[in-house]
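Encode chain A's predicted structure.
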Amino acid sequence: MKSINSYPDRVVQALKTGGYLNEFTITRAFPKTAKPSPLTHSIITVGIDSFELSTAAIGANTKCGDLNIFVDIYIPVKLGGKRINTALHNVYNACTYLEPCKIKAGRTHFDSSTQAYKTEVIITFNNEFQIGGEV
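Encoded structure for chain A:
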């Protein structure tokens, strides 16, 4: 049983492994330092989107259900939006060995606060989870 808090780090590590996304800075969402705006290079941020858990059995502490991890892909306008397709393909390839039950990509749109194209990917895991632990 894995901690919910460990999943964003597992996804970050998967994205950094294999060299498919070397042109991106890959980080947990909401870092302690602000990134430049408008963005000067491509960034991927990862964090917990939502989860829905229930007790697996009466009298047990085991929680099971779905955990949704977001992967936000930002590509500066000056680099062109076509890179999104390659990034999506590489995110999918990097995360499949984590055995998610679903990977869903949203539409790409222009994010005015970063002056970048942004696509959100949601990776869903269905498992038994531990709540708490180290953040």
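The beta strands are 2-3, 24-28, 42-55, 63-76, 102-105, 109-111, 116-130.
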